[in-house]
């Protein structure tokens, strides 16, 4: 399953993707497969995961799956172990699973919702990174293998996001994890970067606007200089740029993919 006239830049690479059946995850997974990668896809939605795996396998991709909730440490351990057991290595990890909050002021965000957002978006990334970093740094020590981690943050990790304060706090934390761990592993063969999209046309947007009286996803683009939502392929291309082994000097960066929003 490789693109015609493409050099299959991820051939021989094993890519782990969390939140793989969501709007962004499935695009990222299928684009990596098209460029030759083998995939370990993880999500809490087992049925959708099996269906997507079947789809990609029928197109010639090598795919394994691991079902679980990222807030549980055992999920991270199992997905990394499955990648190693199936493919014998892990080259790239895209920590993409995440949830949005409903669109409300901070004082109106309930404690349970706040705890859930921090558990999925922050603890989920911490659990995943701990296991990914362990196997990636062992591979570097034993074989000199270089690896890359791409964390899915958000423009809400770079600037304030009114009515999405807890979500913004969680994505600022993801960028803090990215920058700090990039420094820790800069001489240990692992590059770690974050991708920071503005609103993307995925099922998550429906969740963000669900609490509003007049749900209007297109209205969310009014603050974006390009005056539009991003499409999943515009985020996927940045993820693969960050993961590309030839992009070998870039680490600790938080890339705004936002139609100019953070240039203001
Ligand atoms: N869509 C946007 O506008 C947007 C903008 C900026 C950043 N992001 C980030 O991109 C990432 C993907 O978002 P999306 O738009 O594809 O959302 P989505 O809702 O379409 O997909 C999210 C995926 O994560 C999975 N997931 C959620 N909670 C989980 C858990 N506890 N354990 C395991 N899997 C879980 C879901 O099952 C789903 O498949 C998220 O981290 C999100 O914060 C999205």
TrEMBL record:
Gene3D superfamilies: NAD(P)-binding Rossmann-like Domain (3.40.50.720). Its EC number is 1.1.1.47. It holds the Pfam family adh_short_C2. One of its GO terms (molecular function) is glucose 1-dehydrogenase [NAD(P)+] activity. It comes from the Bacteria. It is an enzyme of class 1 (oxidoreductase). InterPro entries: NAD(P)-bd_dom_sf, SDR_fam. Keywords: Oxidoreductase. Belongs to the short-chain dehydrogenases/reductases (SDR) family. This is Glucose 1-dehydrogenase. It comes from Rhizobium alvei.
């Amino acid at each position: 399953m490789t693109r015609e006239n493409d050099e299959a830049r991820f051939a021989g690479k094993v890519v782990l993707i969390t939140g793989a059946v969501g709007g962004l995850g499935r695009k990222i997974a299928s684009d990596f497969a098209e460029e030759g990668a083998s995939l370990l896809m993880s999500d809490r939605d087992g049925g959708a995961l099996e269906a997507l795996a079947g789809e990609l396998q029928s197109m010639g991709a090598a795919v394994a799956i691991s079902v679980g909730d990222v807030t549980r440490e055992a999920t991270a351990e199992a997905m990394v172990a499955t990648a190693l057991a199936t493919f014998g290595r892990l080259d790239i990890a895209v920590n993409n699973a995440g949830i949005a909050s409903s669109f409300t002021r901070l004082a109106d965000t309930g404690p349970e919702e706040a705890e859930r957002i921090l558990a999925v978006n922050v603890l989920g990334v911490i659990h995943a990174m701990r296991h990914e970093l362990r196997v990636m740094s062992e591979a570097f020590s034993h074989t000199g293998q270089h690896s890359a981690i791409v964390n899915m943050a958000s423009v809400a990790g770079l600037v304030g996001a009114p009515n999405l304060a807890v979500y913004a706090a969680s994505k600022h934390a993801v960028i803090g994890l990215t920058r700090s761990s990039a420094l820790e592993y800069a001489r240990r063969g692992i590059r770690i970067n974050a991708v920071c999209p503005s609103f993307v046309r995925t099922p998550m947007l429906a969740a963000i606007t669900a609490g509003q009286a007049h749900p209007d996803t297109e209205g969310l683009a009014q603050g974006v200089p390009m005056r539009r939502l991003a499409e999943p392929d515009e985020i996927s291309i940045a993820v693969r740029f960050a993961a590309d082994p030839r992009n070998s000097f870039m680490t600790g960066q938080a890339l705004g993919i936002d139609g100019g929003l953070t240039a203001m």
